[in-house]
Amino acid sequence: MNRFARIWDSDVAWSFRHSPVAMAAAFMALLIVLAAALAPLIAPYDPFNPATLNLMDGFTPPMEPNMISGNVYWLGTDNQGRDIFSTILYGARISIFVGFSAVVFAMVLGIGLGLTAGWRGGWVDSALMRIADIQLSFPSILIALLIFGIARGLIPPSMREDLAIWVLIVSIGLADWVQFARVVRGATLVEKNKEYIQAARVIGVRPVRMVLGHILPNVMGPVLVIATISLALAIIAEATLSFLGVGVPPTQPSLGTLIRIGQGFLFSGEWWILLFPSITLLALALSVNLLGDWLRDALNPKLR
């Protein structure tokens, strides 16, 4: 109870309670995540089970009965008769999973390399930072495309579809580790020259314990802010790759795949196939971005 009271009275909690934008963004992000996580319970149909699909229900407009079957769908159906509402829930699960996993992978890799570069210094620091500088000279989506293409070429054709999501996670993660590494490296250079680290060295504390037990907790504030903002960028990157046809397999379409499918029918009058997945992706990315902006301000001591 005392711990909950301390959290409730903290500066971050106070800032959240007094920020309507942050509360609205958190509500929207939580609503989409919970809906995606509970998709098997919420979705009225399983859109990826061929046995439940009826081609006669294809291109049914939202909230209008189908002329043949008479079925009514909240957000309409696509060309295969799949319920758009159900496909959005299942597609959001894949987009959120890929985005979150890619950010975790990039964060772990970036923190590890940033701590190593900042602590060791010398040629290790120079080599890692030059690699980071080279990677920053290219758009991250091109890096992800390159890594995805190389990985797909190395994987046997029989395993490509099964490993497509994991290859996508690694591709996006390897494209986004640089920002974590640079921030952690800069914070490590500052922290390792402070008095408490010098005192730890005098009493014989092992370097690994100093880095993980003392320096790492003090650099996590900026890392959490970057991770929150990177989550929205990773979800958009996944949607972009899937839209280009190099993301998740067609049997497990994400929001990007649904948008690509809907784009093909936009000018033929079936606007709902594109509109509703696009709104969902926009709402998810925008809410996460707004949370990242709030967290950046809340953890900035100069703004308190």
TrEMBL record:
One of its GO terms (cellular component) is plasma membrane. It is a multi-pass membrane protein. One of its GO terms (biological process) is transmembrane transport. Pfam families: BPD_transp_1, OppC_N. The chain crosses the membrane at residues 21-43, 94-119, 131-151, 163-184, 215-237, 271-295. Gene3D superfamilies: MetI-like. Residues 92-292 form the ABC transmembrane type-1 domain. The keyword Membrane applies. Keywords: Cell membrane, Membrane, Transmembrane, Transmembrane helix, Transport. It is found in: Cell membrane. InterPro entries: BP-dependent_transpt_permease, MetI-like, MetI-like_sf, OppC_N. Belongs to the binding-protein-dependent transport system permease family. This is ABC transporter permease. It comes from Aquibium carbonis.
